[in-house]
Amino acid sequence: MNRRPMLPLLTILVALSLAGCASNQNLPSTTWQPSGEVPTASDSARADRLWQVFHRYEGTPYRYGGISANGFDCSGFIATAFDEALGRQLPRTTAQMLAAGDVVGRDQLKAGDLVFFRIKGKDQHAGIYMGGDSFIHSSTSIGVTHSSLNGYYWRDRFSQARRFD
């Protein structure tokens, strides 16, 4: 069975679901908006593979140091997602991830970029940007979930982004 005709449909469905999440936000006009770049086929394929991994682990509880379906910390989920979806080995800890990769401006984010957040005065949380204003991560309160960069908790805590191409 040829799956190629399904790729455009899946891309449209992912885009619509992201747009639906973003449109439910009642945000002031001063919040960040995506750059409007049109994703390439490889960007869409990367996002599709990362969403597949996300759905496999969605709801998995947070566990400090966790790197499996028994529980993930934020960097453990990122490392597992990159390994399973993209066949890429990333550094294991948030600090190591911050020291690697290429710095990306917030207005240049692409699906698969890592986003970092400053909590209690230091960069200690990370997730994977998925397009629109959505990112996937392992939250201490919810476990593996997706959130909005413009969400109440996250919008003022964003600190930087890194790309691992």
CATH fold topology: endopeptidase fold (from Nostoc punctiforme)
CATH 2nd-level architecture: Alpha-Beta Complex
Oligomer: single chain
CATH superfamily: endopeptidase domain like (from Nostoc punctiforme)
Query: Could you give the order of strands across the largest sheet?
Result: 3-8-4-5-6-7
C-alpha end-to-end distance:
31 Å
- Please, how many helices? 4
Protein name: NlpC/P60 family protein
Family: Belongs to the peptidase C40 family.
Keywords: Hydrolase, Protease, Signal, Thiol protease
Pfam families: NLPC_P60
Structure description:
32% of the residues lie in helices and 25% in strands. The chain is built from four helices and eight strands, in the order H-H-E-E-H-H-E-E-E-E-E-E. The protein has helices at residues 6-23, 41-57, 74-86, 94-98, and strands spanning 67-68, 71-72, 102-104, 114-119, 122-131, 134-139, 143-148, 158-163. Strands 3-8-4-5-6-7 form a six-stranded antiparallel beta sheet. A two-stranded antiparallel sheet has the order 1-2. Helix 2 (41-57) packs across helix 3. The model is unreliable at 6-36 (pLDDT under 50). This is NlpC/P60 family protein. Belongs to the peptidase C40 family. InterPro entries: NLP_P60_dom (IPR000064), Papain-like_cys_pep_sf (IPR038765), Peptidase_C40 (IPR051202).
Q: Can you give keywords for this protein?
A:
single chain, 165 residues, alpha+beta, endopeptidase fold (from Nostoc punctiforme), six-stranded antiparallel β-sheet, 4 helices, 32% helix, 25% strand
